[in-house]
Write a structure and sequence with these properties.
- Belongs to the SEC15 family.
- InterPro entries: EXOC6/Sec15, EXOC6/Sec15_C, EXOC6/Sec15_C_dom1, EXOC6_Sec15_N, EXOC6PINT-1/Sec15/Tip20_C_dom2.
- This is Exocyst complex component.
- The protein is mainly α and 789 residues long.
- It folds into 4 domains: 33 residues; 198 residues, no CATH class; 172 residues, Tetracycline Repressor, domain 2 (Orthogonal Bundle); 168 residues.
- It is 74% helix and 1% strand.
- The protein contains 26 helices and 2 strands.
- It has a two-stranded antiparallel ribbon.
Length: 789
């Protein structure tokens, strides 16, 4: 109350009434004064309003004066600063105009110099291009001069190199069109000239080599005759010594060899042929020259095969056969040294055709002969021809058959007899390991055929890793060798070891191998029996070396000569193939048995909500079966075979695990099923590692393992258990961790993978967070696999 009255009095003292305050407020607020003025005139009292307005005006003037006094100095200072800015702006404008003028003057001069510089660059470019063109022309012309020089000196290869260099590097870049046209026309002419010259030289060589073939053949046959004579003398002494040693008599002989001049290697010049072939190759006429050579040599051979009618065969047979020998010795040398001029098939065809023509001619001539001396003389030269050509890789059996046709019948009968015995032995064999009770049995059944090392004698009774069919079959083969040698020892051919080896090969391949394979494929056999047969085959393969040595001993040749790699029996490789076939049959039986066990995966609860820690029953049966199988194999199989059997079985199990996930009977599976399969797989992997170590395979296959055979199943389980399965689509990670998996299979399996549903409160746990993250990653993988497929 007191404060309000005090304010009212203050206002009255200042000459202000309530009406003045209202009027001041309206003006201050910018309100319309029209109604107030209209009201004052309507009341007839405008004077008080006019007085109030004047009083208010004076009051505002006073306020304005006070305001001006307060801000006058700042206003004056701002005006002065503005004038200073205007002055500076004028000076800056003047400076800019001056600088622009000077810049225009300097720029005009530089622009002129720039135009001069660009013109200089243009001139330099033209000069450089002209120099480059001149250099190209000079280089081309220098090559042309070199080419002409080489042609004049008959250096055709160097000339072709120069021409080829011009064609490849310069012809398209020659800047002078006239020079280019001249060179383009000259190149075909040069090549044609070279071809004609080279062909002429080659034709001269053809004539020369044909005339030299007889001397080449006679020289080669003479060397074979000398070698045969020396060998016969040495073999006779060796045979006597070995017979005495076999009889238990200690006998050492010293081979005394007279100084024999080292026979020179056959020498004949193939340089013109190689030069012609090489130059034709450079000309791109390689096939044409091959055909030309083959046709001309074939015509020469046809002429050489004609027996001269002016002489009796007994007088001309050496020349006739030496010409043939020389021809094929030359062809063998050409085949080995000419780098593809002749093919093996071509030489073999020529020789087969020649043998097919020569054999009837010899047969006819033998039929016309009425002198034993003549027949023996021709026969000796024919065998020398066979020995000579055999050294060069030709099969001469067709010609040698003419000498002793009855040999085939004899061996056919002998083979048939052995077949019956072998079939009886193998069919009655029970495939049980053979037991030996004393050392004499071990000597006669093992050491006699070199089936096992003879370093130590085992303890008796001894159970051999093979069945009785092995030594029994070896006895039959040994008797066959003895019968063949006995027959051929009285034949016309003194060098019959190769023939014995051929028939021995036939017996082992066509009889022993065939009968054993028939036994292997017998559907009534079990895994242990097939495994024993596979082991038996490996020991029969090992006995091949003994068979060869035994044949060599009976034939009177050093045993060491049959130890060369190329001197072995073909049957050894065939038996090895049959052994592998037996392993495949064994793996088929093993896989069939494993298939029965793996079929039990259908009993797995693929959508179990509870995690089962124990292994599935089928895996226990699989491990027990593999333990039995590998234990048996460790006793009788070589390590490489044991590795094949073990790895094949484990690879099949790995594939079966993946196939279980792919099975149509499995519509969906969850993480618990993956964990159970993972436990089974770990059990199998631990077994694989343990057996790989205990069997000694780790010492042989240092870079391998049985665990590696389970890689597909392991990578699949690792992928399904991964927290980020979508990494499968990363090429680097896939190559490192999932390289054994197939896109399509992974896509099908992932579509079936459904995680176990979360519980009501599961979203609050950390595990569920990981599960959701893995689920998102798995969904992403599914989507990307669908897009990829």
């Amino acid at each position: 109350m007191d404060s309000k009255s005090h304010k009212r009095r203050a206002t009255i003292d200042n000459g202000e009434t309530g009406e003045d305050l209202v009027l001041a407020t309206l003006i201050g607020n910018g309100d319309d004064l029209g109604p107030l003025v209209r009201h004052a005139f309507e009341m007839g009292r405008p004077e008080p309003l006019v007085q109030q307005l004047k009083h208010l005006m004076k009051k505002k003037e006073v306020e304005i004066e006070e305001l001006c006094k307060t801000h006058y100095e700042e206003f004056i200072r701002a005006v002065d600063e503005l004038r200073g800015v205007l002055v500076d702006a004028e000076e800056l404008k003047s400076d800019l105009a001056s600088d622009n003028f000077r810049l225009q003057e300097v720029g005009s001069a530089l622009l002129l110099k720039l135009e001069e510089l660009l013109e200089s660059y243009s001139i330099k470019k033209s000069v450089t291009e002209a120099i480059k063109m001149s250099r190209i022309c000079i280089q081309v012309l220098e090559l042309c001069v070199k080419c002409n020089k080489h042609l004049s000196q008959a250096q055709f290869y160097l000339a072709l190199k120069a021409v080829d260099l011009i064609e490849k590097n310069y012809l398209q870049n020659i800047p002078v069109n006239k020079v280019k046209i001249v060179i383009e026309k000259a190149i075909p002419m040069i090549k044609t000239h070279i071809e004609k010259k080279v062909t002429a030289h080659f034709n001269e060589w053809l004539v020369h080599i044909r005339s030299s073939a007889k001397d080449i053949g006679q020289t080669a046959i003479g060397q074979a005759s000398s070698a045969r004579q020396r060998d016969e003398e040495m073999l006779e002494r060796q045979r006597k010594a070995e017979e005495m040693n076999m009889a238990g008599m200690d006998f050492v002989y010293q081979l005394e060899v007279d100084d024999v001049a080292e026979e020179s290697v056959l020498k004949f010049d193939l340089t013109p042929l190689h030069r012609s072939y090489h130059i034709h190759t450079c000309l791109g006429l390689q096939e044409q020259f091959r055909d030309y050579y083959y046709k001309n040599r074939s015509m020469q051979l046809t002429s050489d095969l004609q027996i001269p009618s002016s002489q009796a065969f007994i007088e001309s047979h050496q020349t006739y056969l030496a010409q043939i020998a020389g021809y094929f010795i030359v062809e063998d040398r050409v085949l080995r040294t000419s780098g593809g001029l002749l093919l093996d098939e071509q030489v073999e065809t020529m020789w087969e055709q020649t043998a097919a023509k020569v054999a009837p001619v010899l047969d006819k001539q033998f039929a016309l002969m009425d002198s034993a001396t003549h027949l023996l003389l021709v026969k000796d030269y024919i065998t020398l021809l066979g020995a000579t050509l055999r050294q060069h890789g030709y099969e001469v059996s067709l010609i040698l058959e003419v000498l002793d046709k009855s040999r085939e019948k004899y061996h056919d009968l002998l083979v048939e007899e052995c077949r019956q015995q072998i079939e009886s032995i193998i069919s009655n064999d029970t495939c049980d390991q053979m037991m030996m009770k004393k050392d004499s049995e071990y000597d006669s059944n093992v050491l006699a055929f070199h089936l096992l090392p003879s370093d130590t004698m085992p303890a008796f009774p001894y159970i051999a890793p093979f069945s009785s069919m092995v030594p029994d079959s070896c006895r039959i083969v040994r008797s066959f060798i003895k019968g063949s040698v006995d027959y051929l020892s009285y034949g016309l051919n003194p060098n019959f070891y190769d023939i014995v080896r051929k028939y021995l090969d036939n017996l082992l391949i066509d009889v022993l191998n065939e009968v054993v394979l028939n036994k292997v494929h017998n559907t009534g056999l079990g895994e242990s029996q097939v495994m024993q047969l596979a082991a038996n085959i490996s020991y029969l393969e090992r006995a091949c070396d003994f068979f060869l040595q035994y044949a060599a001993q009976l034939c009177g040749i050093p045993v060491r000569s049959v130890d060369r790699p190329r001197a072995g029996l073909t049957a050894k490789a065939i038996l090895k193939t049959s052994r592998d076939e037996a392993y495949l049959a064994l793996l088929t039986l093993v896989n069939s048995k494993l298939e029965e066990f793996m079929a039990l995966t259908e009993n797995i609860n693929w959508t179990s909500e509870e995690l089962v820690q124990n292994n599935n029953e089928y895996m226990n049966e699989v491990v027990f079966y593999l333990e039995t199988l590998l234990s048996k194999g460790q006793q009788i199989l070589p390590l490489d075979a044991l590795y094949k059997v073990g790895s094949g079985a484990l690879e099949y199990i790995s594939s079966s695990i993946v196939a279980a996930f792919l099975s149509d009977s499995v519509k969906r599976f969850n993480a618990n099923a993956v964990i159970v399969i993972n436990n089974d797989l770990k059990m199998l992997e631990n077994f694989a590692d343990e057996r790989f170590q205990t069997t000694g395979l780790s010492e042989v296959y240092r870079d391998g393992s049985f665990r590696g055979c389970l890689v597909e199943a392991r990578q699949l389980i690792n992928l399904l258990s991964s927290s980020q399965p979508e990494n499968f689509m990363n090429p680097v990670i896939r190559q490192k961790n999932y390289n054994a998996l197939d896109y399509k299979k992974v896509g099908i399996i992932c579509d079936k993978f459904k995680d176990t549903a979360d519980s009501i409160f599961g979203s609050l746990s950390n595990r569920n967070t990981k599960t959701n993250s893995r689920k998102k990653s798995m969904d992403m993988l599914k989507k990307r696999l669908k897009d990829f497929n």
